[in-house]
């Protein structure tokens, strides 16, 4: 590419992004799923709280959930927040009592270790206290557990902080096959809020970061809410406040920007590079976004086309609705973790 061509592409970039952002809404596609409510059985006397954290174990059958202790916060609860269910929906393991404020993200690595993100963003994160306010003794951290619940690593300062004391409202964590750790940070949509991706070594040492303050330009983030990685090692960031997915290499080079999957709260990519994206906020939390419908859009990263759509049946709800967190088991069944309705639903292929 010569210099003149490169400069032309740079000049055209804002126009290209604007055109993509204003693409026609994709609100219809085949829906090959039926919904199973009440699939996961909690102990007697316990009810579901808000949850945005759900992940499949390496066996492709067991489902891990980080649940907010029957309400929308575990701050004053002694219930175990991390739950493991077998493929029949029976609870087989639980741990993490009195450790979290707001479990928000979850990831199961190649060794079946379970990573939990405590966003400390009760109330949607929009009212979270600033780092210099009187901070609680917990929250704003990431925890790595063995499959049996032994705490192996804690990342971040309890109560939150800025450099060098991470984190402040972290959203998601992803561990690459080589052990590199990626974290998306910044749940608030307020002006000046943190909105970035951080890259750490497998031992937790900061290697790089990109993004920074909340913004809507081509190099910015606004609530980088979800992380996923495809078979080629490309990192997908759900830039929720900007209604797009941004695709990077592992050094932070922007490779592409997608708008066709709507407003991404959660992203999952399976071994065949099928991509599942949840939109839980269009026309509800994002009240001006009435042209896009909430639900789960499905495609493949090879071409980025939306080929299936599982709509939110409660599309007229006035709060966050349907799945935020999402995972898919080895049979192709989808599991959606819901914040507003306080539920975990299973979507089975028909």
Span from first to last CA?
Answer: 49 Å
Structural class category = mainly beta
Helix-strand sequence: HEEEEEEEEEEEEEEEEEEEEEEEE
Average pLDDT number: 89
Helical percentage:
under 10%
Number of helices: 1
The residue ranges in which pLDDT falls below 50 over 5 or more consecutive positions are: 5-13, 124-133
Describe the sheet with the most strands. Answer: 4 strands, antiparallel
Rounded to the nearest angstrom, the radius of gyration is 19 Å
List the helices and strands and how they pair.
Layout lengths: L2 H19 L11 E4 L16 E4 L6 E4 L15 E4 L5 E5 L7 E6 L5 E5 L22 E5 L5 E5 L14 E6 L5 E5 L8 E7 L5 E8 L10 E6 L5 E5 L4 E5 L5 E5 L7 E4 L4 E6 L15 E6 L5 E6 L11 E6 L5 E5 L4 E7 L1
Antiparallel strand pairs: 1-24, 2-3, 3-4, 4-5, 6-7, 7-8, 8-9, 10-11, 11-12, 12-13, 14-15, 15-16, 16-17, 18-19, 19-20, 20-21, 22-23, 23-24
How would you summarize this macromolecular structure in one to three sentences?
This protein has a single domain (3-349), classed as Neuraminidase (6 Propeller). It has one helix and 24 strands.
Describe this protein's structure:
By secondary structure, this protein is mainly beta. It has one domain (3-349): TolB, C-terminal domain (Neuraminidase, 6 Propeller), CATH 2.120.10.30. The chain is built from one helix and 24 strands. The protein has one helix at residues 3-21, and strands at residues 33-36, 53-56, 63-66, 82-85, 91-95, 103-108, 114-118, 141-145, 151-155, 170-175, 181-185, 194-200, 206-213, 224-229, 235-239, 244-248, 254-258, 266-269, 274-279, 295-300, 306-311, 323-328, 334-338, 343-349. It has a four-stranded antiparallel sheet with strand order 1-24-23-22, with no helix packed on it. Strands 2-3-4-5 form a four-stranded antiparallel sheet, with no helix packed on it.
């Amino acid at each position: 590419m010569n210099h003149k061509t490169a400069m032309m592409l740079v000049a055209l970039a804002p126009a290209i992004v604007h055109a993509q952002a204003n693409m026609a809404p994709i609100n219809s596609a085949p829906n090959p799923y039926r919904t199973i409510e009440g699939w996961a059985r909690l102990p007697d006397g316990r009810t579901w709280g808000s949850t945005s954290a759900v992940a499949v174990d390496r066996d492709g059958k067991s489902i891990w959930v980080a649940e907010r202790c029957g309400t929308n916060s575990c701050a004053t609860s002694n219930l175990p927040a991390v739950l493991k269910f077998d493929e029949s929906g029976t609870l087989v393991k639980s741990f993490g009592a009195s450790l979290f404020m707001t479990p928000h993200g979850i990831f199961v690595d190649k060794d079946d270790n379970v990573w939990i993100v405590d966003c400390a963003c009760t109330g949607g994160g929009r009212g979270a206290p600033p780092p210099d306010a009187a901070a609680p003794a917990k929250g704003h951290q990431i925890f790595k557990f063995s499959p049996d619940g032994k705490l192996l690593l804690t990342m971040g300062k309890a109560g939150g902080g800025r450099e060098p004391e991470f984190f402040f409202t972290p959203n998601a964590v992803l561990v690459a096959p080589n052990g590199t750790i990626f974290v998306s940070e910044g749940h608030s949509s307020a002006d000046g809020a943190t909105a970035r991706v951080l890259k750490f070594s497998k031992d937790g040492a900061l290697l790089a970061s990109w993004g920074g303050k909340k913004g809507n330009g081509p190099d910015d983030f606004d609530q980088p809410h979800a992380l996923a990685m495809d078979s080629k090692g490309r990192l997908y960031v759900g830039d929720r406040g900007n209604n797009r997915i941004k695709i990077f290499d592992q050094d932070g080079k922007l490779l592409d920007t997608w708008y066709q999957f709507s407003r991404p709260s959660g992203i999952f990519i399976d071994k065949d590079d099928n991509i599942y994206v949840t939109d839980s906020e269009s026309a509800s939390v994002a009240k001006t976004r009435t042209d896009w419908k909430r639900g789960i859009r499905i495609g493949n990263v090879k071409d980025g086309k939306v080929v299936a759509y599982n709509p939110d049946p409660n599309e007229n709800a006035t709060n966050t609705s349907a799945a935020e967190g999402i995972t898919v088991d080895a049979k192709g069944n989808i599991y959606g973790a819901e914040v507003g309705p306080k539920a975990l639903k299973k979507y089975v292929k028909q």
